[in-house]
Amino acid sequence: MESFSLILAIVVVTALAFDFTNGFHDTANAMATTISTGALKPKIAVAMSAVLNLAGAFLSVEVANTISKGLVDETGIRPEVIFAALVGAILWNLLTWLVGLPSSSSHALMGGLVGATVASAGFGAVHGDVLVTKVLLPAVAAPLVAGLASMLATRFSYGIAGKAEGEATRKGYRVGQIASAGLVSLAHGTNDAQKTMGIITLALIAGGSIAPGSNPPTWVILSAGLAIALGTYIGGWRIIRTMGTGLTDLEPRQGFAAQTSAATAILASSHLGFSLSTTHVVSGSVMGAGLGRKGGVVRWSTATRMVVAWLLTLPAAALVGAGAESVTDLGDWGTAVVAVFLIASSAAIWKISRREVVDHTNVVAENAEPAGVVTTAIAAVTPPPTGTVTEGLTATIPAPAAEPASATPPAATV
């Protein structure tokens, strides 16, 4: 019993560590566009997002129930399996954070859980219908639906405003963007914080601490909300830079359209119990907003890297989770080996990240990625606006031609 209590405590602590990484990994979802357009200062933005993430954690438990009751057979899961699943999810979160790619923390957790469960109890312990309908299908549909909605909203906002570009218009959209960013943060708390609630609840059921089918206890809801809020406040500045300036260039009205569309999709999915990736939704919304403005450009090389990371998330986390489960199955010493591996790997990733520090002081630095062929061609043929002076251009006015010398000498004066 003492040994079991120890492994259960390790699982809970590791789950909260994952929740912390989820927080700073997904801060960009709510605040990247708000920071990039200048609507809020970086530190104020992440503080606001942290508070609303905490509040959102108390609004619903539907997503938590999807994980603790629906995805895998909760009666055949040991706490060591959940620990192995969390190892796969945490390492994938840290690796994608290191390279600045906004991958899905949700899918990392789902992949780790599925891989560890299959390694422990076989494929029969995974509920395939739930995996398809509440994880995989939303993963494909969410960015497409959110992107289309954001593109239409952006075009509508430019259409009704016409050519109004005064300071009052920009200020109004900034205020709207702050409100919509707050809504995304609240929605993120209702969806992503619940995933950790669900995984801790599943561990408690596996350990016999609570009855199968139970909802998350209050202390689980509070601790998960606090962990994701703290991670959010730390700020995942590398991913904020990618989402805010590396994917496209947004004006305040585009940011408003993107965040409103994303918040609507996330809140709707939380109500239905879909374990939706907020990263997929927000990324799709940002790209849609970029395409919705006339002359807007999406940096497809960055978008391609993001999609590749999305495709790899589930299988990569599943492989690590399965490998970790195989080691923990060897006994207590195997669990200790996996724990040491997780700590050492996390420390190594953090050490590598110190070689190029990205924080609130340089998160909105100019994007270093080249513009690409199409963007360069458009810029080359587009004349500068009338009445403006383009920096770096000089005009040369040719001097008037000199009067030709007369071939007839002047008449002599008598």
Plain-language structure description:
Keywords: Membrane, Phosphate transport, Transmembrane, Transmembrane helix, Transport. It is found in: Membrane. Its main location: membrane. InterPro entries: Phos_transporter. With 414 residues, the chain is an all-alpha fold. The chain has one domain. It is 71% helix and 0% strand. The chain contains 14 helices and no strands. It starts with a helix and ends in a 33-residue tail after the last helix.
Number of separate helices? 14
Contiguous low-pLDDT stretches (5 residues minimum) are 367-397, 410-414
In terms of DSSP E residues, the strand content is: under 5%
**Rg, Å, rounded:** 27 Å
Q: How many domains is the backbone divided into?
A: 1
Helix content: over 70%
Q: Any idea what the shape is?
A: globular
Tell how many strands the DSSP assignment holds: 0
Query: Could you describe the largest sheet, including whether it forms a barrel?
Result: none
Helix-and-strand structural type: mainly alpha
Q: How do the helices and strands follow one another from N- to C-terminus?
A: HHHHHHHHHHHHHH
The mean pLDDT is 77
Termini separation: 135 Å
